[in-house]
Amino acid sequence: MTAADNELLTRVCGDAPMGRMMRQHWWVPAALSEKLLADGQPLRQRLFGQAYVAFRATDGQVGFFDEACPHRGASLALARNEDNALRCIYHGWKFSVQGVTLAVPTQPDNEAEYCKHVPLRHYPVREAAGVVWVWLGEGDQAPAFPEMEFTQLPPGHTVAFRQKVACNWLQGVETTMDSAHLGVLHQSAMQGSGDIALTSVNQAPVYQVDRKPYGFRYAAIRPLADGRSYVRANSFVMPWYGVIAPQQSTTRGGNMFFSVPIDDENIWYWHITYQLDQPVPPQAALNYTDPDNWPPGLPGGAEDNWGQNREQMKKGHFTGFAQSLGTEDFAVITSMGPIVDRTKEYLGAGDGAVVQVRRCLLGAVKEFMQGQTPQCADHAHIDYPSIRPLAATFEGEADWKSML
Ligand code: FES
Ligand SMILES: [Fe+2]
Fold first, then answer.
1. Cβ of 80 below 6 Å from ligand 1
2. CATH code of the domain made up of 27-134
3. Is 128 helix (H, G, I), strand (E, B) or coil?
4. Which of 211, 233, 394, 395 could lock onto 390 through a cystine, CB 3.0 to 4.6 A?
5. Does the beta carbon of 114 lie inside 6 Å of ligand 1?
6. Nearest ligand 1 atom to alpha carbon 69
7. Per-residue pLDDT tens digits for 226-237
């Protein structure tokens, strides 16, 4: 990869084309629904290096504004949240959840007229699967919402949680799609998963990639000792979604992972686990206490190898990050540095999916830079509900495409 392509792929703040493309053509997962309480505290949101505030109004609707008050910039995270509106505590300007300026008490004359011209920036939101999505693009033509299988499920069938990780967003996406690391990095964590196919995993899967309008689907195929093959078929959905097979081959559902840029060097790493036929059982909700801080983040920094526990390793744990499988991912993607230098990589067959992710993203951002809507953002022509993961064991030659 050239240095220029690495910059193009990774930079998302300000005028950087990748960030502008993402904000314009996709809805951005921004907050956990459950954290926003009606008439409760407005919560600061940082996305693409910009400061926003989200709040739930009296009637349950979510409002999403720039954090800085359009008057003189006091934080609207300090605002009063009442009466279906935010009221800035500095001079009392009041903004409805729909983004209409309702009152400017510092303007006793012609207040109504003055209100019409207050440049409050507010953004459309959607709620699904316990997530507040926001559209941060320019103009008033929001893209279609990607109606994926998990966004249609009733409450209880999805569980959402996330963690802040100090690395560039693409490192997050790449680890999601990199099936080859499962049997290595996560081997100790997987041992308890009870899935024989996974725990006896061969460390070098063969990839089959299937390009799709939304990105691509791929199967990682691993021969098992008994002659059968174990197939995990996952999808990459532009610009940051990984649709990943459940650990148990018997579960109808899957996992969504997405890495949303806070800025160029920090992400929210989201995980939504979902089940089609039944609510997610409590044990699969992974016992988290704070869904905004799960799986456990890294217990240390670079100076102490992010808290890696060498005692655990001596006792048999492969990585020394026994907190969770997610913590193992966070350790390696953080250790690469905030933005890894992809000109220095040495890629091989196991990196097939990672290479495809980059191809999709580079292709799209180049279309965007020529003033086009990227093909993979032509939402009306993408069959989102059909995007499904698969984990299954096959006799002989794997006919995985017919199973999806
Ligand atoms: S800064 Fe918000 S009302 Fe003045
Ligand atoms: Fe991982």
1. no
2. 2.102.10.10
3. strand
4. 233
5. no
6. 2
7. 888 888 899 999
